[in-house]
């Protein structure tokens, strides 16, 4: 029987939307729909941002085709000369940007970076002190649903019930009591700067490693708008896709004495082949983050967050820790008569996209939002006031969701995330 084969589709470096539409309209429609969703609603998820066209170009490039197990100059595959150069540039830029002796740019995500840090420093059953999940700890900080909670013995520190701030006396007390092998500082929702010097001091007192999980603030660190954990922590784990505005991915920074252990913990212990298109995109993002424009951006992100936090407080929200030092705002909408999950639903109906978060000492959930994406869109202080007013109107049912959506579209339309 003869088999008729279709001629293979011509491969191009960037097939583009028209080609995708012809070949796979269902996926093309999703891509177009998602682009429109991002461009017509308000993106306030604290962990999201809009990458640059240059980052997207690297991500959608033929580097995605390349297998590259190992590290530059020591790969298990041939043909790696050019991707080796990309990874070397990413490492060079990351170490320069954060003042680190060593960078591993291969972790596929923030969670993969944390997994590798634990693999490098700990053994199953070791005790680890980290922020408890109800106070803002990440899943990788001891959740029973995550490898961390299953393989290690996590002890959680909290925040002060009145101020919502980390109680460093409690951290020290728990460290003395439990003698952890490692202390983790970092959070998904803590809006204040961390005192890395205090954490270092506590870790030194009990002979623990200090792991900074800087997934959120690392972009602010790059722009000089938040303290740098690198001089204090043994290992710094981070994501590259939040304020830092790179591709989805992770990174680890450390001193040269731990470099080999960290590298082996990433590959071959916890990961396989590196994603070279993502690593090239990380290099592009690190290059962008080293510019004065990014420094101005990072400071504007914080100024916007402070403005928005104050505006929300004026509208009746209970703002956690009474404000923010970063891009993150936590707020309890209870005084407006709604619980966090209900608030998220009403805001979503109005085209305002954000997360809920745990309330350390309250009932129900609060809302967590961030200013990284809206700042990339060019919004400033006046827009923060408008956003706060839209929140209140949505939660108090002062206008129909349709009217609010129109107002949101008008606001976003003046600051398009994908100009042109
Ligand atoms: C503190 C912290 N650690 C780790 C992660 C995990 O990052 P990823 O979702 O890329 O695995 C996050 C993500 O938000 C985070 O906030």
Describe the structure.
The protein has 420 residues and is α/β, with parallel strands linked by helices. The protein folds into two domains: 62-289, Aspartate Aminotransferase, domain 2 (3-Layer(aba) Sandwich), CATH 3.40.640.10; 292-413, Aspartate Aminotransferase, domain 1, CATH 3.90.1150. It is built from 16 helices and 15 strands. The chain has a seven-stranded mixed sheet with strand order 4-10-9-8-7-5-6, with helices on both faces. α3 (53-59) packs antiparallel against α11 (276-289). Pyridoxal-5'-phosphate binds at residues 47, 109-111, 114, 138, 140, 186-188, 213, 215-216, 239, 250.
Summarize this structure as a short list of keywords or feature phrases:
420 residues, alpha/beta, Aspartate Aminotransferase, domain 2, Aspartate Aminotransferase, domain 1, four-stranded antiparallel sheet, 16 helices, 15 strands, binds pyridoxal-5'-phosphate
Can you lay out the helices and strands and say which pair or pack?
Elements: H1 16-23, H2 25-40, E1 42-43, H3 53-59, E2 70-71, E3 74-75, H4 81-98, E4 102-104, H5 110-121, E5 127-131, H6 147-151, E6 153-157, H7 168-178, E7 182-185, H8 196-206, E8 209-213, H9 218-222, E9 235-239, E10 250-254, H10 256-270, H11 276-289, H12 292-314, E11 318-319, E12 328-332, H13 340-349, E13 352-353, E14 355-358, E15 365-370, H14 372-376, H15 381-395, H16 401-413
Parallel strand pairs: 1-13, 5-6, 5-7, 7-8, 8-9
Antiparallel strand pairs: 2-3, 4-10, 9-10, 11-12, 12-15, 14-15
Bound molecules: pyridoxal-5'-phosphate.
């Amino acid at each position: 029987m003869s088999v008729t084969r279709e001629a293979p589709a011509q491969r191009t470096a960037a097939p583009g939307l028209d080609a995708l539409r012809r070949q796979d309209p269902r996926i093309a429609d999703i891509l177009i729909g998602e682009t429109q969703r991002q461009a017509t609603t308000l993106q306030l998820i604290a962990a999201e941002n809009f990458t640059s066209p240059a980052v997207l170009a690297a991500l959608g490039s033929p580097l995605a085709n390349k297998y590259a197990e190992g590290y530059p100059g020591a790969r298990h595959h041939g043909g790696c000369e050019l991707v080796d150069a990309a990874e070397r540039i990413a490492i060079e830029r990351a170490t320069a940007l954060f003042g680190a002796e060593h960078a591993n740019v291969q972790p596929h995500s923030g969670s993969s970076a944390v997994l590798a840090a634990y693999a490098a420093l700990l053994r199953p059953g070791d005790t680890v002190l980290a922020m408890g999940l109800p106070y803002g700890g990440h899943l990788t900080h001891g959740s029973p649903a995550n490898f961390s909670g299953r393989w290690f013995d996590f002890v959680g520190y909290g925040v002060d019930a009145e101020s919502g701030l980390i109680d460093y006396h409690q951290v020290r007390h728990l460290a003395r009591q439990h003698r952890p092998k490692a202390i983790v500082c970092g959070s998904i929702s803590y809006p204040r700067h961390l005192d890395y010097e205090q954490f270092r001091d506590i870790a030194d007192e009990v002979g623990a490693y200090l792991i900074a999980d800087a997934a959120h603030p690392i972009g602010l660190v790059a722009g000089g708008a938040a303290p740098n954990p690198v001089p204090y922590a043994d290992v710094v784990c981070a994501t590259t896709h939040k304020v830092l505005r790179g591709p989805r991915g992770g990174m680890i920074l450390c001193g040269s004495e731990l470099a080999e252990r960290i590298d082996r913990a990433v590959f071959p212990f916890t990961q396989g082949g590196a994603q070279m298109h993502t690593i090239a995109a990380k290099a592009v993002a690190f290059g962008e983050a080293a510019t004065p424009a990014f420094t101005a951006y990072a400071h504007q992100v914080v100024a916007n967050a402070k403005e928005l936090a104050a505006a929300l407080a004026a509208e009746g929200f209970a703002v956690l820790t009474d404000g923010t030092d970063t891009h993150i705002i936590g707020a309890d909408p209870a005084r407006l008569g709604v619980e966090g999950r209900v608030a998220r639903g009403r805001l979503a109906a109005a085209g305002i996209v954000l997360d809920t978060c745990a309330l350390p000492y309250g009932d129900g959930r609060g809302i967590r939002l961030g200013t990284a994406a809206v700042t990339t869109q060019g919004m400033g202080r006046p827009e923060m006031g408008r956003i706060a007013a839209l929140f209140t109107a949505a939660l108090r049912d002062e206008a129909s969701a349709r009217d609010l959506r129109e107002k949101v579209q008008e606001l976003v339309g003046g600051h398009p995330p994908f100009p042109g």
